Amino acid sequence: MNAITKLEGKTCKYIGIAFSEHEALGKYNDQTSSPLFSVLPRELRDLIWALATAPYEDPNAKFEKTAYYYRPGHTARLRTEVALLLTCRRVWLEANALPMLQAEQSFYYFRGAPDGRDPEWMARLTKHNSQNLGELHLLIQMGTMEKLADPTWSLRDYFLKNRPVRGDLQPRVFRLTIRHTDWWSWENDAPLRLQDNWVKALLDAPELRSTPILKLDLETLDYKADQLAVIVDRIKMIESESRPSHYVGNSPTMTRFELVDKQDTSTWEGPTNIDDRVRHAYDGKATLTYHVVTLTWNLRFTELPHASVPGLRRASVSLSPDKDPFAVDKDWGRAEGELRFWYAAILPRRREPRMTEWTEGMKQHHFMLRFWTQVRWVSRRQAELGEAVRRRQFEELCGAAREREWAARWEAEKSLLKFIGHRVP
Fold first, then answer.
1. Of the residues 250, 284, 301, the one at which a domain ends
2. What confidence tier does 358 reach under pLDDT thresholds 50, 70, 90?
3. pLDDT score of 377
4. b/e map of 110-119 (b: 16 or more CB within 10 Å)?
5. pLDDT band at residue 169 using 50, 70 and 90 as cut-offs
6. Cα of 313 vs its chain's centroid, Å
7. Which domain holds residue 195?
8. CA 362 from chain center: how many Å?
9. What is the pTM of this model?
10. Which of 256, 280, 301 is where one domain is finished?
11. CA separation for the pair 61, 189 (Å, rounded)
């Protein structure tokens, strides 16, 4: 446990960093003696920062060409250099968001690359990194993707397993790729088949209503291009529903995904021994030529077609407490449920046929004994909860004093650290 985590535990507050020049005003050197800041305009500096922090394929971490995950853009581990951010505070304040904004975070279901992400990695992202999530890339088998058509499944379930938090999944670009080895029965060279309902669910996913661009890659072999063309034409006919998701002024407005007219088509070549295994379906072929079709949708306002979606406020969803996925469970509710269970388990016994007066008296005695035992348990549990609440209030009072002490210290030291919100114990 580091010092920051310990201090968060004592103050009951999260600790963050001032990420903008406006927040950190007076806490950094303007670097006016450097022509990089005094001569070059901010637009050119942003281009320099972007080039210096752009992701690239590490030449020292190449993937095997026969691996399932080997394809253009994924021939080696993706790497991002962040040494630039350590030069000075002025550079850090201007460029700290760029590594996440430009990075591609790839999730594999299944047969993933060594640099693939997982829900545990996603859950560890800070609020700042979640807000600057660039491209979220999902490479997934057809059977697993079809789960999205199930009403009990959501797009969020592929990336996060913890309790939903507003804003924890809002990438700038969401890309979904169905590779040649992700189609049904690809090993037997079976004809291509794709269900439309999961594509419809993807276009209507509420998790993507803060994502400006949605891309769908469909990859197959060149001699199946005609089969893929039929599927692509069918997907183009699927329309996104209009849903209220953003505020324009003080009123919620409708958004929907609109298909870009021009589709992108590309090809690439790979070996026939996928996963170092000989496939009889490829006998006589020296290489495999892959055919890839990419469909792109842009998020648009239904009534304001030329408006830009990014940067606007999300519409808040009003739900009753029993249906709100963000509501916190109450211990008292669980205790009350257990008490109802005892009532249901014991009361029916009183309706059994009367045998003898003594037997009936014993039954009533056992019933009252169990009933009052449960009542005492509920009372004790309620007292424990009350004690926990009082202890928590005391800790918050002590934490508030520590918070003021450390805030004054950081202000005197011109530190970029700050307390950013209440921490749930």
1. 301
2. low
3. 77
4. eeebebbbee
5. confident
6. 18
7. 103-301
8. 58
9. 0.74
10. 301
11. 32
The pLDDT of residue 333:
45
Q: What is the mean pLDDT of residues 417-423?
A: 75
Sign of the Cα pseudo-torsion (402, 406, 409, 411, in order): negative
417: tokens are 């650290």
Q: Answer yes or no: do 194 and 338 share one domain.
A: no
Cis-peptide into 371, omega within 30 deg: no
Tell me, letter by letter, the H, E, C secondary structure of the chain.
Answer: CCHHHHHHHHHCEEEEECCCCCCCCCCCCCCCCCHHHHCCCHHHHHHHHHHHCCCEEEEEEECCCCCCCCECCECEEEECCCHHHHCCHHHHHHHCCHHHHHCEEEEEECCCCCCCECHHHHHCCCHHHHHCCCEEEEEECHHHHHHHHCCCCCHHHHCCCCCCCCCCCCCCEEEEEECHHHCCCHHHCCCCCCCCHHHHHHHCCHHHCCCCEEEEEEEEEHHHHHHHHHHHHHHHCCCCCCEEEEEECCEEEEEEEEECCCCEEEEEEECCCHHHCCCHHHCCCCCEEEEEEEEEEEEEECCCCCCCCCCCCECCCCCCCCCCCCCCCCHHHHHHHHHHHHHHHHHHHHHCCCCCHHHHHHHHHHHHHHHHHHHHHHHHHHHHHHHHHHHHHHHHHHHHHHHHHHHHHHHHHCCCEEEEEECCC
Rounded CA separation 330/322 (Å) = 11
What separation in angstroms does the CA of 62 have from each of 24, 214, 271?
41, 28, 16
pLDDT tens digits, one per residue of 275-297: 999 888 888 889 999 999 999 99
Q: Which of 341, 373, 370, 339 is nearest to 362 (CA)?
A: 370
pLDDT in tens, 404-414: 888 888 888 78
Split into its structural domains, the chain has a count of 2
- Whether 218 is covered by a domain: the verdict is yes
Give the span between the Cα atoms of 275 and 387, in whole angstroms.
Answer: 60
